[in-house]
Amino acid sequence: MASVTRVNPVNPVIATALVQKTFQQTVFKYVLSGGGGAIALVAATAPPVTDEIGTTSSVFQVKSDGLAIITYGDRHALDVNTLATRVGRIIGAGSLTGTGVWTFTATGTLTVTEPTTLFAL
Predict the structure, then answer these.
(1) How far apart are CA 104 and CA 93, in angstroms?
(2) pLDDT digit string (tens) for 57-109?
(3) Contact call for residues 102 and 3 (beta carbons, < 8 A)
(4) Which residues is 33 bridged to in the sheet?
(5) What region, left, alpha or beta, does residue 111 occupy, with left being phi > 0 and alpha being psi -120 to 50 degrees?
(6) What is the distance between the terminal CA atoms of the chain, rounded to a whole angstrom?
(7) pTM above 0.85, yes or no
(8) How far apart are CA 19 and CA 99, in angstroms?
(9) What's the CATH fold of domain 22-113?
(10) Alpha carbons 110 and 32: distance in angstroms, whole number
């Protein structure tokens, strides 16, 4: 008989209080802050960003103030650095300056994280 190895922690529901991942999907949170290039997404600037996010996310939502995006999507080939770079380049010139942090040349940042709890969103 074939053996099965559990990939999630033991007693995951209560003991760890962390997001449990059973498929190759996860939650990513994008946050724009500061001035300059890190402007809130509006009707004119949101489509190119959401088009990019839509290529790898099955579900996403832009916060009503345009300063945050929550996505649920593919994680087997993506990480916070890749996502920050892909979306950061669309919003404005800059560079990756930390884990998941795109710093815009015109000041401001885009920070992408992989939350460990959904309740903090």
Answers:
(1) 6
(2) 888 999 988 899 999 988 887 899 999 999 999 988 999 999 999 999 988 99
(3) no
(4) 109
(5) beta
(6) 42
(7) no
(8) 20
(9) Alpha-Beta Plaits (3.30.70)
(10) 5
The pair phi, psi for residue 93, each rounded to 5°, is: -60, 145
Residue 24 buriedness (CB in 10 A; 0-12 / 13-18 / 19+): exposed
CA-wise closest residue to 79 among 44, 112, 57, 109: 112
| Helices (H), ranges, 18-97 | 46-54, 80-91
| Token output for 49 | 């960003």
Amino acid at site 33: S
Please name the helix (run of DSSP H) or strand (run of DSSP E) that holds residue 60, with its range, or none: strand 57-62
Give the total residue count for the chain: 121
pLDDT in tens, 23-70: 788 899 999 998 766 678 878 788 999 999 888 888 899 998 889 999
Q: How far is CA 50 from the centre of its chain?
A: 12
Q: Give the pair of three-digit tokens for residue 37.
A: 């290039």
Separation CA 94–CA 88 (nearest Å): 7
